[in-house]
Amino acid sequence: MPAATLSRRQLWGLLALTLMWGVNWPMMKLSLQEMPPLYFRASTMCLGAAWLFLYVRGQGERMWPRRDEWATIAWLGLPNVLGWHTLSIFGVQALASGRAAILGFTMPIFTVLLGALFFSERITPRVRVAVTSAGIAIGLLLWHELQSLSGRPVGIAWMLGAALCWGLGTLMFRRATFTLSPMVVTVWMLLLGSVVVWVLAIVFEPAPDVTTFSGAMWVSLLYGVLINYGVAQLIWFGLARHLPPATSAMSVMAIPLVGTLSATFIVGEIPHWQDWLAIGFVMMAIASVLLPSPGRTAATSRT
Question: Is the pTM for the entire model greater than 0.85?
């Protein structure tokens, strides 16, 4: 389906999705000012997945996996949920939220590289452009972090690890076979993953005192539960069946930009020139691997 045939409802849905996932980055940063990262992630993931479970079940979906599917769901949840969501929240804690978003969305490049290394997918000239562009973007951000006295280059390692996990999880998810819908599988990955994150939070972090939370903190928590893990997921899975590859690719590219811009208003982070250059190179990299080549009508992408 060409992009020109997108309905007005789909276009509004895509715009809402990009804004929701972009704004989520500084909202997470706001939450971490008053709540430890693992407790924040466990709370929003668990409640958001429960909300999704009730909604999807209400739509008539079959919710319970077969006995032989539980192991596959747990295996897929390691990179897609524990890897991505846990490492990325530590990355947001250590870095400016816009900078974390830029690094997190190097995921498509890792997907292509891992596909070539482990699944015999071909490295094309466009992939080489993508890898070079992503490398320049990472170098720009790392350079600024090392220059700054308050820099946290370890945060870059957290975010690159998160992007690597997301890329690996994407490849694994594409090759998995289920009798359940992708939405139901995602809900179970989030529910099972949240149990593990709760255990990690209880063991390694001091329990937060909810009586001291500010109004902004409660708003950011509700945003994580209802929007990031709720409405945005429903919009994405509703659009994924119909979005042309080029359109979904453009949505991916816009999320780091929205995250960087909104961070100025939400948490007062002022982007540096390295951030703007890095955004441009990451967008170039994502476009290289996700946008279809001229004359081709299909390409694979995932946000």
Answer: no
What is the DSSP track for 163-214?
HHHHHHHHHHHHH---SS-HHHHHHHHHHHHHHHHHHHHHHHSPPP-GGG--
Separation of alpha carbons 286 and 129, rounded Å:
10
Report DSSP state, residue 119.
Answer: S
Do 95 and 256 form a contact (C-beta atoms < 8 A)?
Answer: no
DSSP state of 231: I
58-70: average pLDDT: 93
How many helices (H) and strands (E) the chain has is answered by 13, 0
Rounded CA separation 182/37 (Å): 27
Q: What is the pLDDT of residues 209-262, one digit of tens each?
A: 999 999 999 999 999 999 999 898 888 877 765 665 556 556 677 888 888 888
First to last CA, the chain: 18
SS3 content of the chain, % helix, strand, coil (to 5): 80, 0, 20
Q: How many residues does the chain have?
A: 303
The CA distance from 75 to 78, in Å, is 6
The DSSP string of 256-280 is: HHHHHHHHHHHT-PPPPHHHHHHHH
Q: How far apart are CA 259 and CA 274, in angstroms?
A: 15
At 25 the three-state DSSP class reads helix
| Average of per-residue pLDDT values in the chain | 84
162-195, pLDDT tens digit by residue?
999 998 998 898 888 889 998 999 999 999 999 9
